[in-house]
Amino acid sequence: MTRLLLLLCLVASLFSRAQTTLQQGMAYRYNGKNPRTPLSNVAISCASATNTVLSDSTGAFVLSFNKLRMGDRLGTVTVKKREMIVFNQQAVDNWSVRNEPLCLILCDASEFEKQKQELIAIGRREAEKKYNQQKAALEQQLQNNSIDMAHYEAQLNEAYEKLENLRQHIGEYAELFARIDQSMIDSTAQRATVLFNQGRVDEAVRLFEQGHYLDKLKQTNQNLKQEKEQKASTEQKLIMLKEDQEEVYQSLQAQLAVYKLRNEWDKIGTLMKNIADETEELDDILNYCSFCTRQNEFEEAETYYHKALEILEKQTQDDPSLYERNKMITLNNLALLYEATGRFKESMELLSTVVETYQKMASENPYDEDLKYMLAVSMNNLAFLYYANDSFEESETLYKEVLKIDRAEAKSNPEEYEVHLATALNNLGVLYSDTERPSKSEKAYLEALEIRKRLAKKDPQEHEPDVACTLDNLAELYENSDRTEESMTKRRESIAIKRRLAKDNPKAYESDLLAALYKLGGMCIKQGQEQEALQLFEEYWFLSKKNPNPSFSQQEDYEIALLVLSLLYPKNEHKKLYEVNQELLPIYKTRHQNGEDTESQYPFILGNLSYQSIFMGAFEQSERLAQENISIDPTKPKKRLNLAASLLFQGRYDEAEAIYRQFKEELKDSFLQDFSDFEEAGIIPNDRLNDVEKIKQLLNE
User: Fold this and answer.
1) What pTM does this model have?
2) If one looks up domain 17-110 in CATH, what number appears?
3) For residues 118 and 177, what is the distance between their CA atoms, to the nearest angstrom?
């Protein structure tokens, strides 16, 4: 028996060794245009590796895996080296087990950040310059009657949206440019990037375009194809041609990065499409799909997703283990595109296929971390689609499966899974809330909130929007459960976050902030907290003025906010009350003329604005508004208050005196109170002080 146990242990040991995979790699220091140099003492680890390793004096390192096979992705890789960061991050994110050594490139962290911030400043300056030029050109066309106001507004809004899009993504584009490997592009592109870094943007763009890199790419591709067809072709010749091809390709990527920082979206789209058509490489096609989706060019995106699937279909047949997961990622993205365009049935069918395939792949590869993650992502997408189509039972079942995966994997790989776990919990909380299970909903929300707050401490820019989202969901749940004070507390916390986000990125977050301010302001009024309500609606008012093209619902909310402010502002806030009522007047005048002012707000606004016009010294305007108000309903004596004062302050004493005499009995106290308010505000014209005293005597007779 002892001998048998020893043999079994020996077999187990041999089997274990047979499963171990060693992956070699090299760590380098990035030196700009100059060749990279080996870098020692770089710590490299990943969740799927059995060891954390240090690169040696030659830059070499070896990772050991017990559970990965050739072609499997490594998952999240952690690299540490004091005062340095990973330069080729995208390549590292895509590392898989392979025959050739992994390539790790690091650069100086402070220099990289300095360059990135300089690029952000250049990109913003260029985008704002372009917007101002477009605005000036449109104003000139409007002045020359070449376009009407509607076209002017539409084109200016389009230009402004492009400017805001650049502001939203400027950090991403600056990082993309900063990661251009100068040693991988040709001398012309190197000079162009230097010019761009110096702020000589126009010169840089001209130099890139004079490089004719797209034509060169076509030529290098043709040369490589011809060489491969030659029987006498040598391996060395093919290597040289491939290096030429890569140099041209990387120069094109540098040109694209410049266009992005310059906000040249038409050029970006054209160049990305041409690159995808020329290379027919999966990455280039999928990058173009992502661009089209971001630009809402869904039909074009769908066309190229199908091209990608055609390529993947061939590759999957050639090497299923390597390409099947890429096919599933593409199908997942196509399904999300279908969802965005309202094609829910097609989206659900695709996502179901993706989930089933990932489940099969994950069962066959139980130690593949990437497969587990993508399975959880696709299941979450499908669960949300079920929820959106009121298939609550199916949605709940899937969310629970997602949570099971996420909880298990988050223990060993929190960086990868905690974000996804919080998302699934938040979504499940929404489902529970909608199906009237508030205690379960609250429990899911609170767990999601705890995770998201913890993540936001490390990376506020990335995770604070999610924190605000869950706070809003909790606030809504508490409000529906008559837990008003708790609801308001959560909304205040959410608004504090949204203020920070909107300050840095108004395009992305200002509309959310506006909705939150409006909601909490309304709750404050119901609770009698008028001072806080005033502050919230005033902030809402000031921010809303910046929105050039509000939706119908936003416009409705804005009008209600103005009415609320007209009631909440203290009596002595004359300038603000004047501005609020000035904005309200044309809105309600149109409604009055169309017979839509069912609550008779227009006369009320006329009276308010006529009164505030006196404090602004706009006596003629006050008279005109008062006369219009009287014409709507001449039976109400109080409408003469503003008319009498506006006439008196214009020096039309006799007309004013007639009104004061006629309505002395009914309005004496109101007339005298107005004079007291006018004197306190100091707005009575000096040459009318005697006239005022005479009228006061008349009223007191």
Assistant:
1) 0.67
2) 2.60.40.10
3) 11
